[in-house]
Amino acid sequence: MIRARGLVQTFHTRQGKQKTEVRAVDGVDIDVEEGEVVGFLGPNGAGKTTTLRMLTTLLKPTAGEATVAGYDVVSQAQDVRRSIGYVSQAGGTFSAARAGEEVMDHGMLYGRTKAEVEKRGKELFDQLQLDGLWTRMPKNMSGGQKRRLDIVMGLIHEPTLVFLDEPTTGLDPQARANLWEHIADLRARRGATVFLTTHYLDEADTLSDRILIIDRGRIVAADTSENLKAQVAGDLIDLEVSDPDRLTVAAEKLGSIAEPPRDGLPGVEIEEQHVRGRVQRAGRAIPGLLRDLDQGGITLDSIEVHRPTLDDVFLTLTGRSLRDAEDAAEAAGEHPAGDAETSDDADTSNDSALTGADQ
Ligand SMILES: Nc1ncnc2c1ncn2[C@@H]1O[C@H](COP(=O)(O)OP(=O)(O)OP(=O)(O)O)[C@@H](O)[C@H]1O
């Protein structure tokens, strides 16, 4: 359904007299099969939106090639647009029409009948908790309601391939959970292929069959969440030691079975009353460890086991946690298209192009 090879996007920016080149996407390969839900995960500024904009024909690749739904994103852009649904991060711009009319007009532009789009539109309003807002002007909706309206616009023509750029950013937990359900349902009921960007680990984990992790414009991992986690050194055992004077001995005992430090993951660590370390299989290791601690006269206030997270995967692969990477990107002022003067090779046409008339 999606195949990209060596996709590159370079922006040229100018701050004062100084020109800089930003290689936002740096040789990306992507393969997505029909019916897959793929989560495209990475910190702020990693290149997710830029990749998505190339795949949805809003931005011409500087180099490389991609086909989406069997069509070339450059030479067959119109066919690509007709075959996909796209919900941009920025959101679409709405006219002065009422929300329901806007949605119906949009659906009819894709060749659906009025009755079809009205039925489907009302269903989507209901599912995304917009019931009662069919005749409301979008400008009089809250931010979260507008975001959900964007999503209705992206889904009204029942596309079988949907691109969602950070779909749940700005939604409250209830609306977020509903949208997750809706995305799962799109695949289950209609066999839709979904490609979504996110920097929420739980979102990528819950929704995706497969996860692509991007960092600094390059794909650093592509696999199922389970396989990615299995590559990370084991489960984290967290011991809360009752007597602070026995912390070092407890660390030695855990250290005798724990993984040594590697790939950005620390070995056994002591923090306040806690001793933490990773073991391959906590279930097998714990009985022996408890015996050993007992024989050493060490009593525990608690013991907890944490399965590896996608953040551990990111840490192992990049040496930084996703949060640190995001903080660094923010501190460096990375983000936002539009901050800087953009080069002529970047077609920064409005994202709403795909949620407007089909062109
Ligand atoms: N139009 C532009 N002009 C200049 N630089 C840009 C432009 N668009 C993006 N960039 C830069 O390209 C890099 C990748 O940005 P992109 O928006 O693709 O990241 P992202 O992973 O989608 O981030 P986020 O999760 O915050 O949306 C960043 O360094 C960003 O500042």
TrEMBL record:
Q: Which domain of life is it from?
A: Bacteria
GO CC annotation terms, alphabetical: plasma membrane
Q: What is its main location?
A: membrane
GO BP terms: daunorubicin transport; doxorubicin transport; response to antibiotic
Task: Give the bilayer topology.
Answer: Peripheral membrane protein
Query: Keywords in UniProt for this one?
Result: Antibiotic resistance, ATP-binding, Nucleotide-binding, Transport
What InterPro entries does its record include?
A: AAA+_ATPase, ABC_transporter-like_ATP-bd, ABC_transporter-like_CS, ABC_transporter_ATP-binding, DrrA, P-loop_NTPase
Has the keyword NADP been applied to this entry? Answer: no
Q: Does the keyword ATP-binding apply?
A: yes
Q: Which segments carry the region annotation Disordered?
A: 325-359
Basic and acidic residues biased stretches: 325-338
- Output the PROSITE patterns linked to this UniProt entry: ABC_TRANSPORTER_1, ABC_TRANSPORTER_2
- Biased composition of type Low complexity is found at 349-359
Q: Where is the ABC transporter domain?
A: 2-241
Q: Where in the cell is it found?
A: Cell membrane
Supply one GO molecular-function term. ATP binding
> NCBIfam families recorded for this chain?
drrA
The similarity comment for this entry is: Belongs to the ABC transporter superfamily. Drug exporter-1 (DrugE1) (TC 3.A.1.105) family.
Mind telling me what this protein is named?
Answer: ATP-binding cassette domain-containing protein
